[in-house]
Amino acid sequence: MISHFYDVIVQTVCRLLIPFIQVYGLYVIAHGHGSPGGGFQGGVILGASFILLCLSHDIQEMKKRLSRRAVLLLCSLGVIIYSGIGFACLFFGGKYLDYGKLHQILPVDLVGARSMGIFGIEVGVGITVMAVMVSIFLDLSSEEKEKGRPE
Amino acid sequence: MIWQLDLILLAFVLICAIASIAVKDLLSSAIIFGAYSFFMCLLWAEMGAVDVAFTEASVGAGVSTIFFIVAILKTTRRSKD
Fold first, then answer.
1. Are B76 and B27 in contact (CB under 8 A)?
2. B51 lies within 8 A of chain A by CB
């Protein structure tokens, strides 16, 4: 669908722009608990950078960086991080997602443990949202072309 | 809260919403829906809900417009009714 379109200006501008978009997405995820933003918005920005690579270059070019298998693995990895932190809090005697109890294993005090816990949750949400956005785009755009091709 | 700015943004939101339903070309409809999303983002930022505005700008104006355009490319561009 988007494969046979080559323009030097579009490709160069997107190649220069994509690292800054990704750094901005990581910034939004990392500062999610102190300022506007968070895992969901940063994950969408990260996913949009991969979609921009797909639009400006090629789907195959994007699959070299982030294959279909890696997308599915990242999809599950974010959920595992989220629920792993939740069950770790449960294991140390608190409620589900009660980050304060994590100060028994982390080298910080109670307040620091809460901050680290919500940061881990944001990272998990960001990874899952990014992978799901890229997965939806790949499913929408490359259905017919890969029907006869083994995955 | 500046009520003149509120009024202007609300007028643009209404215009974009009605135009996005009324237009026959589905690609134009998707683009106008992106513009509607962007004006909603400005309205929310003006009302002080920066987090919601952030979500609206990244999801509504960014990713969902791309999804609509890809869906239109896979189906037809002209509305039948």
1. no
2. yes
Among A1, A44, A55, beta carbon nearest to B58? A44
Domain of A19, in residue numbers: 8-141
Instruction: Report the Cα B18 to chain-centroid distance in Å.
Output: 11
Number of domains chain A contains: 1
**Considering the domain boundaries, does residue A84 fall inside one?**
yes
Helices B26-47 and B64-74, axial angle in degrees (round to 10) = 170
Instruction: Give the distance from residue B36's alpha carbon to the nearest chain A alpha carbon, in angstroms.
Output: 19
Assess if residue A150 is contained within a domain.
Answer: no
Query: Rounded to an integer, what distance in angstroms lies between the CA atom of residue A21 and that of residue A42?
Result: 10
A136 chain-B contacts, CB cut-off 8 A: 67
Please write the tens of the pLDDT for every residue from A39-55.
899 999 999 999 999 88
Where in chain B does DSSP place strands (E)?
Answer: none
Is residue A119 domain-resident?
A: yes
**Global confidence as pTM:** 0.85
What ipTM was predicted for this assembly? 0.83
